[in-house]
Write a structure and sequence with these properties.
The complex is a heterodimer of chains A (about 110) and B (about 280). By secondary structure, chain A is mainly beta. Helices cover about 0% and strands about 50% of the residues of chain A. Chain A has a single domain (about 5-105), classed as Immunoglobulin-like, CATH 2.60.40.10. Chain B is α+β, with helices and mostly antiparallel strands. Chain B folds into 2 domains: about 30-70 and about 165-280, Cytochrome Bc1 Complex, Chain D, domain 2 (Orthogonal Bundle), CATH 1.10.760; about 75-160, Cytochrome Bc1 Complex, Chain D, domain 2. Chain B is about 35% helix and about 10% strand. Chain B has helices spanning about 1-10, 10-15, 60-65, 75-85, 95-100, 125-140, 150-160, 175-185, 195-200, 235-245, 255-270, and strands at about 30, 35, 40, 50-55, 115-120, 125, 210, 210-215, 225, 230-235, 280. The radius of gyration of chain B is 19 Å and the shape is globular. Classes of the chains: A mainly beta (about 110), B alpha+beta (about 280). The interface of A and B includes residues 2, 21 and 69 of A.
Chain lengths: ~110, ~280
């Protein structure tokens, strides 16, 4: 996994619907391909993504094979109060990448 | 005659949209991160085209919208790779690009002028050659492959600095001979399909070639992220793809033929704004 890219508005009105965009650089090796010698290349994908606002889960995704390289996930949410939006990506090999952004509610 | 044929060919489209266009690029406007970028330009007098259109105008609206937001634009994954490479020490001299060129923004005026004559070396230079010269002479590092991943990441980052600036390659002086060589290649029919660049990109832009909407083949968006191969594509890699499509034996990327063609095609787009790194299909 590479450096996570997220686009989160810095501020929003209480109850406003905001759009969150995330992109994680990842090869998403499907497990279906073979290398030059004919050996199967083992599956290595991001299998789980979640977004958590102030400790409460906003949404989560189980990803399977056939999800494209560099998965881009976009969703809408409403923010009741100022808080931290935390993102988490879990790789097949157990690596967890996390990042978080603060949203100010006025 | 050509004009008449095209008018007939796109008559239906012109009626539908109520516009008397020469061919049928759409009329959408490109805005990237709040910056308006012009996607057409008036051609120089005496040139082969009346009006210049960026390839962006020939793409589907979904593809167009990808380029209008730097977060949605997949090229920026590669631009970030380029930023990492820019600061990465490589080679025997213990230097990175940033050791000499502190801020990549100093290349702001570079992309629109390339390829250009390099007086010291006595030949035409593309961005790839400048990068490799730096790597070999100053860093003591290995050359990068012309169409390789590292090279396109770096050319994407450097080209981005000139986004919005009009293409302005020099066509006179020492490059005049190379330009005419490029023009000859552009108009020479090759391959089993016996086609030249002009057959598609001059005679038929705006028309469909099977499922694809033919553009003018302008290079103002390169390096470009192509949805078909999910990576950055250099100008020479695209030329190679075109030649394969017409069942011709492609010239070598980085070779004299493609460089001459790169210069000539760039000169046909003089005035169009740099869109690099763009998104195409």
């Amino acid at each position: 996994m590479g450096k996570p890219r997220v686009k989160v508005p810095k501020s929003a009105g209480a109850g406003d619907t905001i759009t969150i965009k995330t992109l994680m650089k990842h090869k998403m090796e499907s497990g279906q391909r073979k290398d030059k010698d004919g050996n199967k290349i083992p599956r290595k994908i991001i299998n789980f993504f979640s977004a958590t606002f102030n400790g409460e889960e906003v949404m989560s995704v189980n990803l399977h094979g056939a999800v494209s390289t560099n998965p881009f996930i976009q969703f809408d949410m409403t923010v009741p109060t100022t808080g931290d939006l935390a993102f988490k990506w879990v790789d097949d090999d157990g690596t967890v990448t996390e990042t978080s952004k603060t949203i100010k509610v006025s | 005659m050509k004009k008449l044929l095209s008018t007939v060919a796109c008559g239906i489209v012109a009626m539908t949209f109520g516009q008397a266009a020469f061919a049928d690029p759409d009329n959408n406007n490109l805005t990237v991160e709040g910056m308006a970028i012009s996607t057409d330009a008036k051609a120089m007098a005496g040139g082969p085209l009346d009006q210049l259109f960026s390839g962006w105008r020939f793409r589907a609206s979904e593809t167009q919208s990808l380029q209008m937001d730097d977060f949605d634009n997949p090229s920026f994954v590669f631009v970030e790779d380029g930023e990492a490479l820019y600061d990465k020490v490589d080679g025997s001299e213990g230097k990175a690009c940033s050791s000499c060129h502190e801020d990549v923004a100093e290349f702001k005026d570079l992309r629109p002028t390339l390829p250009r004559w390099n007086e010291a070396k006595g030949k035409l230079y593309s961005m790839e050659q400048y990068i490799n010269d730096c790597r070999v002479d100053r860093m003591g590092a290995e050359k990068w492959k012309w169409t390789g991943t590292n090279m396109t990441a770096m050319t994407s980052l450097i080209s981005l600095q000139s986004r919005g600036m009009p293409i302005s390659v020099a066509t006179d002086g020492p490059v005049a001979d190379i330009l005419s060589k490029g023009k000859e290649i552009y108009y020479t029919r090759v391959g089993q399909l016996d086609m030249s660049c002009a057959n598609c990109h001059e005679d038929n832009f705006g028309n469909m070639i099977r499922a694809d909407h033919l553009s003018q083949g302008q290079t103002n968006g390169f390096p470009t992220y192509r949805l078909k191969n999910a990576k950055m594509n250099s100008i020479h890699a695209r030329f190679k793809g075109c030649m394969k499509n017409i069942r011709a034996k492609p010239f070598k990327p980085g070779g004299a033929e493609f460089q001459a063609l790169e210069l000539y095609v760039a000169s046909r787009g003089n005035g169009l704004a740099v869109e690099s790194p763009s998104v195409r299909n």
